[in-house]
Batch of 3 targets.
Target 1
Amino acid sequence: MAAARRDWGRVRRLPSGRWQARYPGPDGLLRPAPDTFVRKAEATDWLANKRTEISRDDWINPDFAAVTLREFGSRWIRERRIAETTRERYEFAFEKHVIPHIGELPLGKIRDQTIRSWYARLHDSEVGTASISKAYRLLHAIFSTAVDDLLVRRNPCRIKGASSDRSAERSVLSIEEVFRIAGAVPPRYRALILLAAFTSLRFGELAALQRRHVDLGAQEISVRRSQAELRGGRRLIKDPKSGAGIRDVAVPAEILAELWDHLVKFIEPGDEALVFSGPKGGSLRRHNFRKIWLDALVEAHVARTDVHFHDLRHTGNDLAAKTGASTRELMARMGHASMRAALIYQHASRDRDREIASQINSNLMRSRPQPRASNKDQGHVAGTSNEEAG
């Protein structure tokens, strides 16, 4: 049947009996609506809405929206100017948690409900909360770029709170436990345990530490490099995690003698010699050190399950927070550019906060004025006294 001509766009009835709407796109092509309609009025209304959309400059080229999430997301990760370790984390999250579920869908077909279903599916499959949050943040960033590139009209990642990492708070080791672990590892790693706990240095920062970075006279360690381990076992020496990671960290005097003993016994001569290395002089690797760590936990009788090397850093951060250090001071020591982590440790120092409240309470008890009786109370007391006297 011939198409019904209109002032703008065309509507025609198909052999199936359904109605088709076509419109002239801003690119000069006559484009059909993505779906057909039962009634002609529905097709006409759709055309009117499309014309309004184009006049508002909200039109999205349907050819672009047909690009799959796998294609666009992979290109997004590849083209980002980010650290190689960050790129690996993005690739892992995208390949493991996104592509298998919604990777083959066209961008233009992914709606809010699509993302909600994907998010719920990850939780149902018992993926860790932290991993889900990272995958969601990545997906949100990918779609934000798709919006900027006019591939989709709006970002479908709109789940409130989904970007927040609600992973459980890591347990903090006691000082006694730290020294027990330090006594359980081979002697060449004792100082590694103590520095991780009492200077809050990360494993990668300790593994990259060189003799020239240790100043025993100033009681300081200069953090200037960090070691990252990539998939496939490749080792990468890079700048610390952020600009704030480049810092000088004071070493508690109580462990200076242990650090000096380590420098004498286990480090090769030369400013560039690694402070911590394996028995044959090789670089420390997380996966190689893991067995040493687990064996030490057993020997040190640290009964708590799932204790990680990184919990030594948590312990150091917690100890620093309990000294009453300011947020800025904690950020500087921890090597964080944002306040978020420092505030977490300040919030976590509940015991210290209770001590403060207890001291305030003692002052209140000593200095609080006694309540004065009101006139009414005085009259009541006086009246009672007179009655009894009478």
Note: The CA atoms of residues 119 and 132 lie 8 Å apart.
Target 2
Amino acid sequence: MPPLIQTSAGLAQAAERLASGSGPIAIDTERASGFRYSGRAYLIQLRRAGAGTLLVDPIPIDDLAPLRAALTGPEWILHAASQDLPCLAELELHPASLFDTELAARLCDFEKVGLASITEQLLGFRLEKQHSAADWSSRPLPHDWLVYAALDVELLLELRGKLAAELAEQGKTAWAEAEFEHVRTAGPPKPRKEPWRRTSGIHKVRGAKALSRVRAVWEARDDLARKLDRAPGKVLPDAAIVEAAVNDPTDFAELMSLPGFRRRGGRTNARLWLAALAEARKLPGERLPATTPPQDGPPAAHRWADRDPDAAERLAAAREVVADVAGAHRLPAENLITPAIVRALAWEPPSRLSEEDVREALLEAGARRWQVDLLAGGLTEALG
């Protein structure tokens, strides 16, 4: 196993090795999302022909400039790149070009596209994933964890070759390149509107006043979790927030009578939770949340038949077109076109239903040109 790089001097030497190698660079990261609030990288794994495998601990290293320079230019190979790119971007590490082995496997229509599955299918090696949910923020990192992490990039170079050959054989190389570029340039996702509404168990909460209590405690927890850099669920479980919203405790004894608050985080921060609940009680009616989430885009598809039967028919016809084209080209339907784009188009089609207008609407919604080329004609007929 390669040594763990934890110093600036070690990083400079490693960057020289990486720069002297040839071809693309396989990259993976380990995060601690189940334990920490942030999505930062706690380990970076790299491999390149002629350079071997490198394990970099970015936490104690003040300046990653040598690594940044070595990574600038060559193609990056990642598996499920959208999961790793945000934490690499936080370190100012950005790819000039990209090959995503998971996305390539999807476009090749493999049934299972996890790294362990696709490696076993194409290369005959079985990767163990027993440390994937470990707390990578802990230090020192155990030896067996580092062995596991190194294996995640050991085979990516060979895997890329196999998948590139499969894409070429299926005539999908240009499609894959367009998808890789889309992932590379996508940037961070937009912040969710009213993220507190995703609290698990919120369906048990009834009425605007009770929902305001969910919001108040959720926001207090989120602020504390950010300050502590702890996963929100480790600070206070969602079940406790729902209990507080339903029961509206007004003092310490009432709060502690709720099972979700008897854990350390609930008891230690009792004043914070009670203060949040007290603030929620003071809210005037106009500042209470709506009892239904604000609509951002079309309603849920299962409601279309009642609300707009014509739109429901358009959606059914459009989905049939997508399914037929996807089947003809051996593509998962969700990779042929994002389902949300189809729903939006069916709910509110262009005012003029020409193929040119449908093409323009698809492009504006974020579809790639290869997707539009395959679908615009059929969708125009489906919407008519």
Note: The mean pLDDT is 95.
Target 3
Amino acid sequence: MEKKVVAFVPIKLNSQRLPHKNILPLGEHSLSWYIFNTLLQIEQIDEVCVFCSDEKVMEYLPKGVRFVKRDSRLNGDLVKGHEIYEAFINTIDSDIYLLAHTTSPFMSETSVRNALINVLSENYDSALSVIKKQTFVWYKGETLNYKLDDIPRTQDIEPVYIETSGFFIFKKDHFLTHGQRIGFLPYFQELDDIEAIDIDTKEDYEFALRIIEPNKLLQEI
């Protein structure tokens, strides 16, 4: 039986660290436009939704996105992501959900599609975007992936994987049963450094502008 896949992107128009972050201009579009455009290109996704309390957000998104209104109570700075995801799932039914964020505008269609295909294949119960770091890592004052008295070559060291906020793919029944957006057998979709960029601060935004407007950067140099 074919599984229904719904992608959703939570957005609030008021942001604390970077005011009006989701509707800031980035190249020819708003910051939020890019991830929606990417999701709309993936044929395995049945519906792409924006979950927002203000329909004004539709002015900044590509055609084909469905507006799903969320309670303005969920716009609070202390509201946890889990509450938002649960509210969406209770509103829009699906077998599989793809949660993405506007703050990853450089996420590639190829990466998202590959992760989704791996979940649809039933070989994995979920998927998430990660960056792989094969380097010397410390945690709480101790080495995490090597021993001080036996330092390996960098190419031989055990890599670590770091979650990005790019996307998470999970099954409805798993989320409702365990309250988790990552399953017990997740697929790690590795991103390159550009894809993994997450825009949360003014400095992040300025860096993204330099990437998307290389000609402007060359003029400054």
Note: Residues 5-130+161-220 form a domain with the Spore Coat Polysaccharide Biosynthesis Protein SpsA; Chain A fold (CATH 3.90.550.10).
